[in-house]
Amino acid sequence: MNLQVTDKKHYCLFLVLSSLLCAVCLGQLNDASGRSASIMYFKALAGSPSEAFIYSGDKEVAKTPLPRSNFSKFFKIPKGDQLLSFLPKPMDRDRSFSQAPPSVKVPESWGKVLFLVFEDKSNAVMPIRVVPINASDNQFGPGCLYVINFSELRVFGTIGEKELKIRPMEKRVIKQPIDENGDYAVRLQALVQGDDKPRRFIKQMWSYNDKMRTLFLILPKPAPYHATYYSAPIRDF
Fold it and tell me: H-type helices in the chain, by residue range?
């Protein structure tokens, strides 16, 4: 289509309207793309769900496998405040649940999301519990290490050049453990409730890459160890 605008005033108006139209179209494309998300069912037992159908209300927004040792490929979830439900198969709209399916709230402000899955035998719809993590660039961006202590231990020490003190069920974000990419020392001790002296928990060399996020989970384990850990590098997304 050829469009000729000869009047200067109309030409300026044409440029303004064209810019607005492009902005609206771009906004619609961005809205359609949603937000990036990834999920992991850490060390799922045999017979545990191997995939999940994710719903916002009665609308399916994603279908994803539930890998047990690494995060899944990235998928999209809608923007805005969301209450997401996780189902083992596509929703039957004629079926009513006797129990609410496992669900999580994802705030509008979260630009990127990670989901951790744990076993929950009490849920008859799908025997899992989902923990959402805000992976927005301004919260847990590239170069950051996100620590979650799911154990009953108090853990403290140094990660690279940064100090860590974390109580049971607390979270910490460490930004840039060292100044430049390379290896760094992780030296952490743990205090078991009732003990007088801490015990060595981790003494290792880890690798830092300012293009990678790292998720560091401290997980409960039966005595005499009381806890174990898992460290997962996550590429930028």
Answer: 8-33, 137-140
